[in-house]
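Look at a sample.

——
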Amino acid sequence: MTVRTRIAPSPTGDPHVGTAYIALFNLAFARQHGGDFILRIEDTDQTRSTPESEQAILDSLRWLGLEWDEGPDVGGPHGPYRQSERKDSYKDFAMKLVEEGKAFLCYRTADELNELREARRAAGKQTALKQSDLGLPADEVDRRMSEGASYVVRMKVPEEGTCVIDDMLRGTIEVDWAQVDCQILLKSDGMPTYHLANVVDDHLMKISHVIRGEEWISSAPKHHLLYQYFGWEMPKLCHMPLLRNPDKSKLSKRKNPTGINYYERMGYLPEALLNYLARMGWSMPDESEKFTRQQMFDNFDIQRVSLGGPIFDQEKLSWLNGLWIREELDSEAFSQKFQQWALNSDYLMPIIPLIQPRVDKFSDVVPLAGFFMSGMLDLDEADFENKALDKDQVRRVLQFSLWQLEAERYWEKDRIFQGLSGLSKAMDFKIRDFLFPLFVAISGSASSVSVIESMLLLGPDMSRARLRHALNQLGAASKKEAKRWDKEFRALQAVLESQS
């Protein structure tokens, strides 16, 4: 059997270090066994998937040195490698299950589903809905069908008993079928859900081992059942431990920068970041902390993965990156790497038009452009003092702007400005006063070059990280404040949407 592993990210946001972490272990396992590593884009979420996000995934994984044997950009014998380009085939698989009595058309509305779950909850039962809950009288089904009501295709799931799953790291996992919903396989728009597309694609692409995060353990019974229904052999499963924040919570952008692009912009070496990700739950036989990708591949054994939640600690990453810089780069290599990072023409040229009108001599450049080549800025409360805004107003502006920018899918100048300008009006602030805290958070100065242009060039990861850093310097919202602010922000968004 040829070992074939895959990574299947969704192009719906900034490339995540968790994606790189799982990709690394899939690649290492494939290389250990002389197999193939496949990159597949799971873009069934058509409302959130973007070509820009897909390209960012490809670029960031390649920057880290994670290469794939088959994928949307390199091709391969089992393409296409974007689910959106395979969508017409998924319906045939779903309807085959309907014809065989292993799935059914469900005409239930969202309100009805909520009522059914509430009824089960009130009765002290699991809220997972079964066919016996979802079924409608035949005449009602006929009526809704004749009226052209929307429907989804759901798989049938046992109402009792236990599903037994074998996991390469965890051994036997048992899940009570009572906890498992009759999963939607085909949405009302004809697009497959992750679960159907994932199983079909893994089978057609001859995936032998599925190495993924432990958050997918709850989905394993559904996938196990689908393989049984189709009569296919299920790949071997391996559920990796999740990356954690220092407080042991699941790694999240609220507490830790999670975008790969952030670490690239911060000036980490890709070899060091990959080295650090390799140490997340795994170790070399000699317990060495610094090692290359090839050294990992040469010594890789999936059984050495520890199930304890690995802690993603930026201080430890910086320490390891420092080792790489000092031990692997001589002066000439250091100079070349620094120029590639900060002074490459692709990054530098867009900055020049912003600063050149303000430059009288070249010694003016660093004070004007230094923040483009910095990480987190040295800020304190005094930097945000302003006659038009008190401290709490500054905090609200920063938090609301951060939420606005986190929801922005297209990092474009006009969209960034329109979003912040609309928010400024909704919050009843003059745009100049509203942007003041953003100038300070992004550039360290209220008299810098355009803050919108600056965020465009710094990119979404770094821009959002600097806003979070500024908020932390001023005092992040308490739980009570955060709840109140979130409610207020949602109300403002509703107003803005009604006006658009």
Notes: DSSP finds 20 helices and nine strands in the chain.
